[in-house]
Design goal:
This protein is of the alpha+beta class. The protein has one domain (about 10-90): Hypothetical Cytosolic Protein, Chain: A (2-Layer Sandwich), CATH 3.30.1230. Helix content is about 35%, strand content about 25%. It contains 3 helices and 5 strands, in the order E-E-E-E-E-H-H-H. It has a 3-stranded antiparallel sheet. A two-stranded antiparallel sheet has the order 1-2. Strand 1 (about 10) and strand 2 form a beta hairpin. The longest helix has 15 residues, at about 75-90. The chain is globular, with a radius of gyration of 14 Å.
Length: about 90
């Protein structure tokens, strides 16, 4: 009797769909209130997951989903930086 390995699932803050953790991109907030795109998924910090698509990013920005998740206001410069990094991850 073989055991099946449990696949970790996370919810995208943009489209709100549950997906495989490896399909999503992690955005983290460090203790210093800095935001980064965590491609490895292993950096320290509070994380939120988002699909690797600009549509989900735009939806999350419009609904302020990241601000609700991190319980802090996020400046537009941070969104611009995250958008560039996600765009680079798209390619």
């Amino acid at each position: 009797m073989g055991q099946t390995k449990k696949i970790p699932m996370r919810q995208c803050v943009g489209c709100r769909e549950m997906k495989n953790k490896k399909e999503l991109v992690r955005i983290i907030k460090t203790k210093e209130n800095e935001f980064f795109v965590d491609v490895t998924g292993k950096k320290n910090g509070r994380g939120a997951y988002i699909c690797n698509s600009m549509d989900c990013f735009k939806q999350a920005k419009k609904s302020k989903a990241l601000e609700k998740t991190f319980k802090t206001a996020i400046p537009d410069e941070i969104y611009d930086t995250l958008e560039k990094e996600l765009g680079g991850a798209d390619e």
